[in-house]
Amino acid sequence: MRMPIEAASSALPGDRVGAGLLSRVSPLVWRLQIAGLLTIAATTYFPALSHLQEYAFFTLLAIALGTALAEGRSLGFRSPMHLPIALLLGWVLLSVPFAVDPSYSFAEWRKLAAKILLFYWAVHVWRIALQQGGARMNEALLAALAVGALGLSLYALPDFWHRGGTWTDRPIRAQAPWSDYNWLSTYMVMTFPLLAAAAWCAPQRWMRWSAAAVALLALLAQLASYTRAGWLGVLAQAVAAGFLLERRRLVAIVVIGAVVVVAVLLGLGAAGYHQDTLHPWTLETRMAVWGVMLQEIGEHPLVGVGYGTNTLMTRLGDHPEALKAGGSHNFFLMVAMGSGLPALLFLVWAMAAGAKECVRLSRRPGLDRFTWALLLATALMIIGFAVRNGFDTMFNGSLACLFWLLLAVAVAQEPAPSAARAGTVPASWEREAA
């Protein structure tokens, strides 16, 4: 009687050739994915490049899915983000047929879905990046963000002075290229805590000094944008940092410093400076249009009147409050009016779950100091971004891309079990990823 032949010896030559090819190609593919993620992170600071970012992302996504399928790599992971994200996407889609312009609202829903798809792609890519390079990959991400923030600051500040900007008032304000001061302010609110974390905890002195220099430029750009909501976002981040670090003295210093700054501004106003900065007309305009939006929410509390920033003018364009404001100036009210109160609940849930997850991961035992700072800074980014969106609709385009990418990098810090089924990933790739 013949002895049974081992399964491995019965593999066809074509199978062995395919496995060998996969073992050589897989590491190159994932290096490409990591490089693409870093490039997208650096270029999100320039909104004019958003279409190129989208093309690059979908190309990378297709390659990643094909490679993961060939490797037998599992794409699932446990996260408290799944449920609120799924409910948000589902409810906004459910509300589309009830919109004043369903085709427009569906197009806006697709943009939201694409940004969330980027989140899931980035989680998987960054987990592989951490397997390959460890915590050094987090340093590479902060370097990419610093490059983007530096480029944006070096454009905004000289442009501000060239156009005649001054410290005396804000008729001319620093702005981001191909956008405006609102975009510049929001970029800086999102980036400043990350740069501060790198300046505080980077492992090498030159990295700390470089991050500190870029953080200073970012702070100057924030000041020159003369965007009070941006200043409020940074203030909220500073106060939240004091509570997260359990340093009440820091909270007291921040609050006292804010009071001093307000007193100085009021003194300058009495002397004839910063009249427009101190004038409440923009807040009054916002509150007027918010009142109209709240009425619409009260009349359509479940599914709203259409998701998207343009819905306000389509629906309420004949109202003087809407005409004067020119927009909703509040992302949360825009979501509630567009897709109902459940959509607002799921949005807030998703953002709160993201911040809570960052804090939870930062408390894992054995975490290196730099990753700990990165996770806390991401939680502060979410807080500042939420405050900023309370005064404008800035959760779109490259800003939304940056938000989901940073959140994905934080979520990816959770150690993941083996992503491949036994025997399906080439040994050479397992050794390289270990």
Write a compact overview of the structure shown.
Helix content is 73%, strand content 0%. It is an all-alpha fold and 434 residues long.
SSE layout and pairing:
Elements: H1 13-43, H2 50-71, H3 82-95, H4 102-133, H5 136-162, H6 181-201, H7 205-224, H8 228-244, H9 248-270, H10 275-278, H11 281-299, H12 311-316, H13 320-325, H14 331-339, H15 341-362, H16 369-389, H17 397-411, H18 427-433
Name a few traits of the molecule.
disordered N terminus; 18 helices; 0% strand; mainly alpha
- The CA-CA distance between the termini, in Å, is 43 Å
- Beta percentage is under 5%
Using the CA coordinates, give the radius of gyration.
Answer: 24 Å
Helix content: over 70%
Shape: globular
Count of helical stretches: 18
The average pLDDT is: 88
Note the main sheet.
Answer: none
SS-derived structural category: mainly alpha
Helix-strand string: HHHHHHHHHHHHHHHHHH
Number of strands: 0
Q: Which parts are unreliable, with pLDDT below 50 for 5 consecutive residues or more? A: 1-11, 419-434
What does this structure look like?
It is a single chain. The protein has 434 residues and is mainly α. Helix content is 73%, strand content 0%. It has helices at residues 13-43, 50-71, 82-95, 102-133, 136-162, 181-201, 205-224, 228-244, 248-270, 275-278, 281-299, 311-316, 320-325, 331-339, 341-362, 369-389, 397-411, 427-433. Helix 1 (13-43) packs parallel to helix 18 (427-433) and helix 3 runs antiparallel to helix 15. Mean pLDDT is 88; it is low at 1-11 and 419-434.
